[in-house]
Amino acid sequence: MVLGILTSIAACPAIIGTTEAVRQGQKTSAKEKHRGLKSNLFVSCSTTTRSGREVNGSEVVLQNNKLYLSTPSPDFPDGSEGDHPFAGYFLPYPDQNWGRLGEGFVSTISDEPPQLNWIYVDEDTHEVKYGNREESEPHVIGPWDCTPVDKRVTLEGWEGFLAVRDAPGEWALYFDRDDDGLKEIVSHSKRKVEVELIRKERRQRKPKPEDD
Fold first, then answer.
1. Signal peptide span per the entry (predicted)?
2. Do 119 and 154 contact (CB within 8 A), yes or no?
3. How many helices (H) and strands (E) does the chain have?
4. DSSP character at residue 83
5. Higher pLDDT, residue 147 or 16
6. What is the pLDDT of residue 21?
7. Alpha-carbon span 109 to 71, nearest angstrom
């Protein structure tokens, strides 16, 4: 009897340790669940300049293999025709393992038929683009991740995103990989503002009634 009690006492730390490990694993799993949820992207800009106010709160959209900001204009108050709202999540990129540094990043490019593409940064132009594996592989494909609290998007461990005004009412998304304001990449005549990428859960629509 005494031996049984002693054995139980000796086993307690191991049992407690195992239980705590399971609990921590469950917490981590719940925390990371958001990574696989399809989310929209919006930009936040704290700059109070005219350009900053113009892009702040804009939704990120996909068109012509590039990521743009859907900024209202007199001609297109609801965005340009053909814009597809970013709707994506983190996903392991084939044959890549960045460990805790992050994963690949994908988005739908159409609803009918549903299609996914990889999000990447062009190695030469530093534009944020989308494409299939063959198109994306020669460029900066990751690691993509997000900040632990606000879930802001990061690439290669930091937030270096810029909005660049390509034309009136047209802002494209870039990644300032060299942290030099894209001075060797983008013309000095173009407006540039620093932005943060914010992931937001997609609005839940009313389910359609099932067919009889």
1. 1-21
2. no
3. 3, 14
4. -
5. 147
6. 41
7. 19
And the tokens for 89? 């999540």
CB 174 within 8 A of CB 182: yes
Domain residue limits, the chain: 35-201
| Residue matched to tokens 């407006």 | 191
- Site of tokens 């198109």: 135
Strands 66-70, 170-175: pairing kind: antiparallel
Structure tokens at 126: 């530093």
Helix (H, G, I), strand (E, B) or coil at 147: coil
Spatial separation of the C-alpha atoms in residues 112 and 124, rounded to whole Å = 32
Phi-psi category of 151—alpha, beta or left, where left has phi over 0 and alpha has psi -120 to 50?
left
3-state secondary structure of 189: coil
pLDDT tens-digit profile of 19-45? 444 444 444 455 567 788 899 999 999
